[in-house]
Amino acid sequence: RKEVEQDPGPFNVPEGATVAFNCTYSNSASQSFFWYRQDCRKEPKLLMSVYSSGNEDGRFTAQLNRASQYISLLIRDSKLSDSATYLCVVKHSSASKIIFGSGTRLSIRP
Amino acid sequence: NAGVTQTPKFRVLKTGQSMTLLCAQDMNHEYMYWYRQDPGMGLRLIHYSVGEGTTAKGEVPDGYNVSRLKKQNFLLGLESAAPSQTSVYFCASSSLLAGEQYFGPGTRLTVT
After folding, report:
1. Which residues are within 8 A (CB) of A77 and not within 5 positions of it... i.e. 6 or more apart?
2. Chain B CB contacts of A31 below 8 Å
3. Chain A CB contacts of B56 below 8 Å
4. Local structure of residue A29 (DSSP, 8 states)
5. Residue B11: is its pLDDT beyond 80?
6. Which has the closest alpha carbon to B105: B8, B31, B1?
7. Which chain A residues are Cβ-neighbours of B48 within 8 angstroms?
8. Is the pLDDT at B9 greater than 90, yes or no?
9. Which of A33, A76, A110, B97 has its CA 20 to 30 A from that of B28?
């Protein structure tokens, strides 16, 4: 079983829809959590960190559930420009223990 | 402030050839990383460094070597390239305290 698992998708939703992704992690020692966005043939870019109390950045909301060991990303009022692959990232205390999920592909249609 | 830069952007090698990928960051970050990304797979850590003069193995280190002689540079070497090393290579850096990483634009390597 992978340490970080994501539904690969693709999620194909209409513009303006709300879409949510989950990511599960298996190691309870995980300390920090992030969502990255990766456009086709580009580098991953930090979308947002995920805090224990949940956090919001504009149309994006991230949640952490330590008891069930998952994090989620909610995108409201989706735009065409939101089409990308979303990577879930889990970090332990060690510099080397940063685990990337394989990503969830999102495609927004007009 | 260029962030993280990588050279070259593209390269084609023949089996057995060697090459060095260069990563540079201007954010004064302590940590630097080399990843490879293959279709359908997540980023896999090759080697990393927690400071100048130190390196350590990641998840998939075989066939690669690294050096960090200066804080801002992290070099990845392939001594004898193999077709299995065809991939996209990303360099990243992060600060000591923050967990988030900043990535370079990647190097697309094809080994024939």
Report:
1. A16, A18, A59
2. 99
3. 96
4. T
5. yes
6. B8
7. 95-96
8. yes
9. A33
